[in-house]
Design brief:
By secondary structure, the chain is mainly alpha-helical. The protein is built from 28 helices and 3 strands.
């Protein structure tokens, strides 16, 4: 048995040595085939140069063999490979010291064609060296000012990479993506709301890894959030505090959180947002992209793959022109000659053709999808909800470049945010008051909003209705809105609904609480407002039925003191009614003697009014009125008036 085991071991050793000798030969064969595939490629097909390394001298030889036909697939593929290698080389050797020297060389490459290559190269280099994330973010920040689509593509791919890594629990990739996003937020390439969304996701279901990742992310982006969104950063630290109190995580992670609180006390002095040597872009020149974790993003992987460009030479010339504008290079004499020739050709163009060409150049593209409007509303909403107080919110909203004619979006968004709260918050009233007093345009927008809200008040729930009524009451109290807006209100049984009556009730009760009943009555009895008819609908005097309805309404809500004028009007109404037929009898026709005797006896007028109203939520009342008026003639010709009321 021992001899048999020795023989078997020797045979297995012999077989392993033979396979080791065969493997190098197989590898050499594969390399040889790869090289030969590029050397022996047919004339009609492009050589496969993407996988195997080709020495520079051999690449130059292949370029000569292809020829100067820039429209051929072979030439464009070789140019694509050269562009990819050049971009990869420049990105790989960038650091803090040579960043300013690398940038002109990088812009010298056709980044418009190779935007996908550049983004992929930056992401791979950052994953391999996360310590250089700030350098790559500074590089992208400069490129983003000239080519915003590159910054948008990079942020989109980073968000997709973070989502994928988070679902797969791939901590290294997730950490690298978070670090890169943090530095892009510091450079203002991406909006700070993305950082808050990532922190909310990481702390939603806290685990040891997610909390540790969130702590590292806050250290990188905390200085920026402390400056632009202190309220959001405060809520994040409240989340950390709650995790510490629960004690469900490991003690090591708890110590990490305590260390983060110590960093916060120093205002992130050891973790500056942007180092001085990497602060290369002015704040006004930077273009910030507003992307969210919930957005449907497209990685546009097709930009990383070679495709034949039928207008290759034209796009190359266009990029050369853009490059000269960015780098400030002077054009050559030949180019100036060509431009002179083009100017002469343009002068030779007939006027109608030139006019059509000018109109085509000035043609504007209108976005019917309202994407800009949706982004504007989202920006306004997030700014309102993330501000610490109304002054900060007003300051940030004034900085938003709202297009002319879209100011109403601001007023509608403030009202909508206020209606969504559980109870009324004075923050929204103060914010609306600030804009009404700053600019007359915003005041007109809130006036229109008042009319629209009152017309559609029946669509709101009771809680939303209460908040909206208190908001407009605050604007009336502070004279943010003119009191003429109350002219749209008509307190009659036919013109009001249950929702509108609740709205009016809350509005006037809030005004009475702020002014007091006496001062409010003085404002409502202002001669200028009365002559203008601002409150004719609130205190109607056209029909006794409407007058009594308004009196009963205000009495039921505890504001009967506002109805004194209407009560006096109703008391004097019989005399007014009686005086009308007497005035009309003067120019009447001559009566016959029989008619005179019949009319001399008595003249009587009678009327009756009745009605009822009930509202189960707040109040109920009913009323009825009937009476008659008559006059008896005396010997002296005088008239006596008697009145009976029930």
């Amino acid at each position: 048995n021992t001899q048999q085991r020795r023989a078997g071991a020797m045979a297995s050793a012999r077989r392993s040595r033979s396979t080791e000798r065969e493997e190098p030969s197989a590898m050499e064969g594969r390399k040889r085939k790869a090289l030969e595939s590029g050397r022996d490629a047919p004339a009609g097909k492009s050589p496969r140069t993407g996988g195997a390394y080709i020495p520079p001298f051999k690449l130059a030889k292949m370029m000569k063999e292809v020829g100067s036909d820039k429209q051929s697939e072979s030439y464009q593929r070789l140019a694509w490979d050269a562009l990819r290698k050049s971009i990869n080389g420049l990105v790989n050797k960038v650091n803090k010291r040579n960043l300013k020297e690398i940038l002109p060389e990088l812009i010298g490459e056709n980044l418009e064609r190779g935007k996908g290559l550049f983004v992929r190269s930056v992401m791979k280099s950052q994953v391999a060296s996360p310590a250089f994330s700030s350098v790559y973010a500074a590089l992208v920040a400069v490129i983003n000012t000239k080519f915003p689509e590159i910054g948008d593509l990079l942020v989109s791919r980073l968000i997709l990479q973070f989502r994928r890594a988070y679902k797969r629990n791939d901590k290294p990739i997730c950490t690298a993506a978070c670090k890169f996003i943090a530095h892009l937020v510091n450079q203002q390439v991406e909006h700070e709301l993305l950082a808050l969304e990532i922190l909310a996701l990481l702390l939603e279901k806290p685990s040891d890894d997610s909390v540790e990742l969130a702590v590292g992310f806050v250290k990188e982006v905390g200085a920026t959030l402390l400056e632009v969104s202190p309220k959001g950063l405060h809520s994040v630290f409240e989340g950390f505090r709650g995790i510490l109190h629960e004690g469900a995580i490991h003690k090591r992670v708890q110590f990490v959180i305590e260390g983060l609180f110590a960093v916060r006390k120093t205002n992130f002095e050891d973790f500056p947002a942007v180092p001085d040597e990497l602060d290369l872009v002015e704040q006004d020149d930077q273009i910030t992209h507003d992307l969210s974790l919930e957005d449907k993003l497209d990685a546009r992987s097709g930009l990383d793959v070679f495709t034949v460009d039928p207008k290759y030479e034209e796009t190359e010339r266009e990029y050369q022109r853009v490059k000269r504008e960015i780098l400030g290079e002077s054009s050559d004499e030949s180019e100036s000659g060509e431009s002179d020739g083009e100017e002469e050709e343009e002068e030779a163009v007939p006027p109608p053709v030139a006019a059509r060409a000018a109109s085509a150049k000035t043609e504007e593209i209108t976005d019917m999808t309202e994407t800009d409007l949706v982004n504007l509303r989202r920006t306004i909403y997030l700014t309102i909800m993330s501000a610490l107080d109304f002054e900060e919110a007003g300051h940030k909203l004034m900085k938003i470049s709202i297009p002319r004619g879209k100011e109403s979006e601001l007023s509608s968004m403030i009202i909508e945010c206020c209606s969504q709260e559980r109870t009324y918050i004075k923050y929204y009233g103060l914010l609306a008051q600030r804009f009404c007093q700053v600019n007359r345009v915003y005041q007109d927008c809130f006036v229109d909003a008042f009319y629209k809200q009152y017309e559609t008040i029946h669509r709101l729930e009771t809680n939303k209705l209460r908040n909206v009524a208190k908001l407009f009451a605050h604007l009336l109290e502070t004279d943010g809105l003119p009191w003429s807006v109350l002219g749209v209100i008509k307190i009659t049984e036919d013109d009001t609904t249950s929702s509108s009556r609740i709205f009016i009730k809350i509005l006037f009760q809030d005004l009475a609480e702020e002014f007091g009943l006496r001062k409010l009555n003085e404002r409502l009895q202002d001669p200028r407002a009365t002559s203008a008819g601002w409150f004719d609908g609130v205190f109607p005097k056209d029909l006794p039925k409407n007058t009594r309805f308004s009196i009963n309404f205000f009495t039921s809500i505890g504001l009967g003191g506002l109805t004194d004028n209407m009560r006096a009007h109703l008391k004097n109404l019989p005399k007014t009614i009686m005086s009308k037929p007497q005035a009309a009898a003067a120019p009447a026709r001559k009566e016959t003697s029989k008619e005179k005797r019949r009319s001399a006896g008595s003249a009587s007028y009678s009327y009756s009014y009745s009605g009822s109203y009930s509202y189960s939520g707040s109040y109920s009342y009913s009323y009825s009125y009937s009476g008659s008026y008559y006059s008896d003639s005396a010997d002296s010709g005088g008239a006596k008036a008697k009145e009976e009321k029930k």
